[in-house]
Design the sequence.
């Protein structure tokens, strides 16, 4: 007995169970792809121990058989918002962390093993593993370099502020001079 499900409201009726695996295009799952593992190291880790944690993360990746292509060592910075993590029997709040990332090429079947291994690293506050697009792969974003760049200042806005301040100063000077002149002439000022 063959069960056929029809979708009556569509323009064309589709039978989902009549398709066979031979009709569907096969995708190649053994091809390598580029991935990025971004992570926050707990701020409670001593600054001298952070490179050791970074090396541990890289060794977890190399043990899984991946090729590391790029990296950015963790550096401390303030978080955009407070992160709460359950540690040592209680919830702890963190407002800063050491952020770093590693890019590597791997086969999709290796990702499960990598995820399990990284979750076992106790010094991590949080981590994220993503597959990179070709554009992201070609143009890595250097987080710590971006923090060092000064934001663009709007020169026009600064000039407008100076003009407003200058106009206010001129009007104050005029008012002061007018009141002084009125006092000199014996008139009362309001």
Sequence:
């Amino acid at each position: 007995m063959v069960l056929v499900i029809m979708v009556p409201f569509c323009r064309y009726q589709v039978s989902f169970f009549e398709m066979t695996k031979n009709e569907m295009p096969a995708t190649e799952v053994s091809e390598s792809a580029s991935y990025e593992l971004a992570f926050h190291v707990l701020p409670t880790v001593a600054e001298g121990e952070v490179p050791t944690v970074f090396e541990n993360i890289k060794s977890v990746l190399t043990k899984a058989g991946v090729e590391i292509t790029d990296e950015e060592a963790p550096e401390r910075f303030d978080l955009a918002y407070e992160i709460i993590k359950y540690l040592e029997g209680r919830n702890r709040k963190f407002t800063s962390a050491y952020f770093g990332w590693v890019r590597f090429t791997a086969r999709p079947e290796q990702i499960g093993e990598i995820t399990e291994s990284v979750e076992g690293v106790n010094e991590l506050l949080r981590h994220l593993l993503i597959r990179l697009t070709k554009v992201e792969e070609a143009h890595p974003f250097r987080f710590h370099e971006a923090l060092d760049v000064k934001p663009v200042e709007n020169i026009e806005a600064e000039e407008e502020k100076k003009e407003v301040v200058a106009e206010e100063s001129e009007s104050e000077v005029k008012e002061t001079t007018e009141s002084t002149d009125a006092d000199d002439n014996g008139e009362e000022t309001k």
